[in-house]
Automatic annotation (TrEMBL), chains A, B:
A Pfam cross-reference name: MiaE_2
Protein name, entry field: Ferritin-like fold-containing protein
Ferritin-like domain: residues covered: 23-203
UniProt superkingdom: Bacteria
Species for this entry: Glycomyces tritici
Region (Disordered): 1-20
Amino acid sequence: MSETTDAAAQNDDPAPAASAPGREAVIDLLGLLALGELLAFERMVYDARLAPDLGRRAALSEAAVGEIRNYRLLADRLQELGADPGEAMAPFKEAFRSFDASTSPRDWLEALVKVYLGDAVADDFFRVVSAGLEEQDRTLIETVLAETGASDLAAEEIRAAVEADAAVTGRLSLWARRLVGEGINRAQGVAAANERLTAIIVGDGGTLDALLRRLTRAHQDRMKSVGLNN
Amino acid sequence: MSETTDAAAQNDDPAPAASAPGREAVIDLLGLLALGELLAFERMVYDARLAPDLGRRAALSEAAVGEIRNYRLLADRLQELGADPGEAMAPFKEAFRSFDASTSPRDWLEALVKVYLGDAVADDFFRVVSAGLEEQDRTLIETVLAETGASDLAAEEIRAAVEADAAVTGRLSLWARRLVGEGINRAQGVAAANERLTAIIVGDGGTLDALLRRLTRAHQDRMKSVGLNN
């Protein structure tokens, strides 16, 4: 804010750039990311019940542990910033609830596509937003991104299913498109309701539409890698 | 059984006695314990949704991680014994499903009582059965027992709730009795269906009824320690 005093200049620690986002916007963003990780964890454990056998049911639950570990990293950072993690997450609860209510998987493969796709889009999103953050938060996000257990497990199972029965390709591709559509919908809702958060997400001169197009393209390339169509 | 050899006289420590349980019975038992841990994990994550705020919801999910870690230890041991964990667990799935279907908590405190009580009774049970096992399995069970995160969290919240509002005591005590009743019911069903497993659980000369009475007494003492009645 002020450039007239030393205290203000050294305000935050590793010297924030002139355009560094304010503390409140960072708390919003970390709250959104933390809730995303917490709910990804819960969703995997719920959806694990769709597994064809107890071994795979347990495997998805075990893979989900990476997400709750990520939640803890983000929650710790929120507390460091003086924020209550529960309160920082609360504004985004309804968007996630409504997304999950409209995309409840009907079987094991749909559950895995949701895991794979959700994890991948979340990772792309993490990468995009981390660019605008300070050193410490960027490092935190790199640690979060390094966790790929659930995504690897899901990709492997989807590939095997597509190879074993080409007929599932169409059905799962359609399901993936629906997930993306619903996801874009909720992202627009969250952005419309929170200007401060949107500013930090899209960055200087960016627009939400451009960001969503970019995420969608990355997603389409990734679908191919597990044998699905765009 | 025999009093004629030193090995039998010191029955209880390392060296398996002549009466050491067969491999199949140990696999049954480890399958039962592994499924118990896996489902305790899932149940906590599901029931965490009943939490009054996102912070406590996350806390219960985080505490649940100890259970899935225990599941992994037991599953690894099953694999060491040449058994498939999924197959070893399958015979007990219906008993747990039916227990959970008849004891679905209606609110956060009921969920916590179920966590606390389930964890405690499971621990008592682990202790009882470990006596009949060989060294390696006893050590494994000690490691499993050392995990108390979920139970500690639940006990703390229940005590605080009882202190804040004495009126909840009666309701939660009744709920705890119902959980125990349903649990005994399912235990009897499992025992009746599997003689080999029952033999390893009750030990030489023991009966299931005596074991259940012993577990129930331990449970009653424990209820008092969180402010509930028998």
